Amino acid sequence: MKVAVLDINGKDTGRQVNLSKDVFAIEPNNHAVYLDVKQYLANQRQGTHKAKERAEISGSTRKIKKQKGTGTARAGSIKSGVFKGGGRMFGPRPRSYSFKLNKNVKRLARKSALTIKANEKSIVILEDFNFESPKTKNFTAILKALDLVNKKSLFVLGGSNNNVYLSSRNLKGSEVITSSEISTYKILNANQVILLESAIEGIESNLSK
């Protein structure tokens, strides 16, 4: 699967890279994609929600009326959840929403996501670049050249590059990650996935295991 390599000005360099069919042209597995996205979103939840139960409410514990003869339901403490100001019955408690997912399933999900983007012609191969210093306007110029302004874009680098990362940090619709940080959610959430040449080998190596 050959794809043209563009420069930072959006022009064809005349070179092509061969993307592995085992990573970018498989039969997508929608259920694996669903599970991997579900796990990613679950891991983002803090799980710090808490409501006070009747044991945690300040108030008297005396029995508010006699057990029988009132013609109404039995009632004990005023802190019961049936009364205004009482504790919450079956309220939320702090918990972790994370769950385990088999590595092979996650690998299949990411290959499926890349395949989906490849089928949509939403993957761009960009030659490696660097900035002398972090400047947002330099990164914005690349977005304009690639027609990615006001679009969600995911740039995948071969390795960490602080200048490029810091240059993109203030731009809401763009995200810069390394090849080892790709996730199914991030791939599918972007309108365009921009792979730097140096990132391709790392992606294929990680997902072909």
Automatic annotation (TrEMBL):
Q: Name one GO cellular component term.
A: ribonucleoprotein complex
Q: Which Gene3D superfamilies match?
A: 3.40.1370.10
Family under the similarity heading: Belongs to the universal ribosomal protein uL4 family.
**Region of interest (Disordered), ranges:** 46-77
Q: Does the keyword Aminoacyl-tRNA synthetase apply?
A: no
Q: How does it assemble?
A: Part of the 50S ribosomal subunit.
Question: Which GO biological process categories is it annotated with?
Answer: translation
Organism name: Bizionia argentinensis JUB59
Top-rank taxon of the source lineage equals Bacteria
Q: Name one GO molecular function term.
A: rRNA binding
**Could you tell me which InterPro entries the record lists for this protein?**
Ribosomal_uL4, Ribosomal_uL4-like, Ribosomal_uL4_dom_sf
Instruction: Tell me one Pfam family matched here.
Output: Ribosomal_L4
Q: What name has this protein been given in UniProt?
A: Large ribosomal subunit protein uL4
Listed A to Z, the keywords are:
Ribonucleoprotein, Ribosomal protein, RNA-binding, rRNA-binding
Q: What is this protein's function per UniProt?
A: One of the primary rRNA binding proteins, this protein initially binds near the 5'-end of the 23S rRNA. It is important during the early stages of 50S assembly. It makes multiple contacts with different domains of the 23S rRNA in the assembled 50S subunit and ribosome.
